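ARCHIVE CARD
Drawer: 12
Card no.: 0347
Subject: one protein chain, sequence and derived structure
Cross-reference: see card 0346
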Amino acid sequence: MTQSDAPLSNDAYYLHNTARLFRWEVEWELDGSVRMSQGDQTVRAFFTHDGAFWFGRTTGPSTGNRELALAETVDALERHGNPSVPPAA
């Protein structure tokens, strides 16, 4: 599924861009959820039928397997990701 097919809510847009900024591989699923992975860590976000964030789920050795609220999902992306380094001037 491409980004243009995915829910375009503020929540989906923010999670997608945060994941990309922290170098997660982002893949939209056919059910409208988004799977973000980096190495052995995976964060998956689920949305309601109108595109609002419903819950997140993490899997991996340092996160276990649990449901997350939106703020916790963003925190997981930031904490376990590798932020992009701005290009040298």
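Annotation on reverse: The longest helix spans residues 10-21. The beta strands are 25-28, 34-38, 41-47, 53-60, 64-68.
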